[in-house]
Amino acid sequence: MFFNDIHIRIRFLFLSVICILVIIILRVFYIQVFQYDKLSNLAESLWSRKLPIGADRGEILDRNGKVLATNLTTTSLVVIPNQIKDKEDTALKLSKILNTSYDDMLVHVSKKTSIERVHPEGRQLAYEVAKQIDELNIDGVYLVKESKRYYPYGSLLSHVLGYVGIDNQGLSGLELTYNSYLTGIDGAIKYFSDGKGNRLQLSEIYEKPQNGINLQLTIDLDIQQSIERELDNVMSKYSPEHAMILAMNPQNGEIYAMASRPNFDPNNYQNYDTETINRNLPIWMTYEPGSTFKIMTLASTVEEKTTNLFEDHFYDSGSIHVDGSTIHCWKSGGHKDQSFLQVVENSCNPGFVVLGQKLGKEKLMQYINNFGFGKKTGIDLNGESNGILFKTSNMGAVELATTSFGQGISVTPIQQVTAVSAAINGGFLYQPYLVKEMLEPETNSIIKTTEKVMKKKVISEESSKLVRYALESVVANGSGRNAYIENYRVGGKTGTAQKVADGHYMSGNYILSFMGFMPADNPQIVVYVAVDHPVGVVQYGGTVAAPIAKNVLESVINVLNIKPSKDGMEKEYNWLDQKYVLLPDVTNKSVEEAKKILKGFKIEYAGEGDKVIYQSPEAKTYVKDNAVVKLMLG
């Protein structure tokens, strides 16, 4: 009996040992197979250290590949406190080189941490400073690569590009909007140390940084430089409070150029106040648009066919009475009898009041909303404003009248440009955008392409064609004459908007603007110019803003390869204008015949013979009166 008891116990003990061994084996197997990576990483973290290598931020390029934002390679200081033997001496030497507090530096080198980044005084060091630190040759003091954002064109396109902070974090503009794409993944040099932090003589491991994605914009650097020059001239000549120019492709919503004043240099953004660096006026500023808004009333009228521009007439006495209020025309005494096409040419407020009355408030507001006013356009930038419109239910006769000529409402420049683009491109309202493509940083291959977004069909192609005709007539025969370009078809509309302060209109303080496009028969570019309270000049959009728009449009002729046209409207000259005349064709004529035909021109000859075989400029183009004409004889 006793023997059997012992036998059972031995068997039980044996089975228990076997079970324990099986459990241990299974546990070891689980740890080795399933938890190996986790435990290995935990173990490695105890004796491995990483010196960071900063990744480059993605570059920003214009539509032709010209670099607008890139990176400079700099060095930054990191310390490994456990490797520093004489902390006081190290802190003293580093504080002298960096021109900073000894106590602050002592805190850095004494911290109970594996790696300490010396921030901000040790970031993005100048070459001379980094060289002095390197020559110290102190254990535990390291210089690591870091990337610094650099804008090669300085203040050009500053509000659109934005700027980045010391940690390469986008803080405004495209740098902020696309920060997650532009930001790369930092690399490191991994080395090994013992429990006390002393470096072990083991091979280092290099972890390559991954650079951020490059952005290719819709911006054209040549057009951008053109509008920047014009804005600099405006500030110098008129000393306005603000000024801005915006250029867009009306056929798809691509922004060609955008700038405003005041601006800033993103390389040195710390030297500017927050208002200057954060307010991108073309998308942020809201104000009464004035007469450029009349394009919306015109387009709505044409689409609804409430008025025939050519056959219907309006007598302008100089003012119109609406519900007890008197609305004046800008021209004292009025324009008298005129067709409604002439109402548009002359920018006659009373005439536009009648157009608004014929539409009615419901229809007018319906079109204004359809054209995108009162809400953000959706452009890929932060800080866009909505603007302010009347609620249709709150509009009375006076509000309808003032809205019809752009007073009493508030809009942004980007809203106006997108709306006018829809009015002249066949009726398609496109969402404006700045980023054309995203590019892989190593191969520059396309990762993503932005497709145009058509938000709404607002008016018909037939109506749009008539709007283009009317606005070309404004430039040829009306208030936009100063934007006329001989041999090219330009359409546009001037604007003179009185500013509001504390609920009252300011005396003698206006925003002068011009909305222009070309070619008028097939628009490839829309340009909007606005100058806020210019000093020492007659306060009219046609006087100040139209010539600026003309300069911009002339500069883009070669950039966009816009061809001359002989089908445009001939300008109606007045005594102040530089007169242009149509050059006759004298090829295949004799010299004597050519002299008679070109009477009034200066003639220069080349070659020999009595017959004209070539002339410059080309025949049937507009040239300045008394211009030089070169004739090749043969």
Description of the molecule:
It is built from 20 helices and 26 strands. The protein has 634 residues and is an alpha+beta fold. The strands form eight sheets. Strands 2, 3, 4, 5, 8, 16 and 17 form a seven-stranded mixed β-sheet that branches. It is elongated, with a radius of gyration of 36 Å. It starts with a helix and ends with a strand. The mean pLDDT is 87.
In brief, what are we looking at here?
With 634 residues, the chain is α+β, with helices and mostly antiparallel strands. 34% of the residues lie in helices and 24% in strands. Strand 12 (319-322) and strand 13 (325-328) form a beta hairpin.
Secondary structure: elements and pairs:
Layout: H1 2-33, H2 36-47, E1 48-53, E2 60-61, E3 67-79, H3 87-98, H4 102-110, E4 116-117, H5 127-136, E5 141-150, H6 158-161, H7 173-177, H8 179-182, E6 187-192, E7 205-207, E8 214-217, H9 221-238, E9 242-248, E10 255-261, H10 274-278, H11 281-284, H12 294-304, E11 313-316, E12 319-322, E13 325-328, E14 336-339, H13 340-346, H14 349-359, H15 361-370, H16 397-404, H17 413-424, E15 428-430, E16 435-439, E17 446-449, E18 454-457, H18 461-477, E19 491-501, E20 504-518, E21 525-532, H19 541-559, E22 580-582, H20 591-597, E23 602-607, E24 612-616, E25 622-624, E26 628-633
Parallel strand pairs: 2-8, 23-26
Antiparallel strand pairs: 1-6, 2-3, 3-4, 3-5, 6-7, 8-16, 9-10, 9-21, 11-14, 12-13, 15-18, 16-17, 19-20, 20-21, 22-25, 24-26
Helix pairs in contact: 3-4, 3-5, 9-19, 12-14, 12-18, 13-18, 14-16
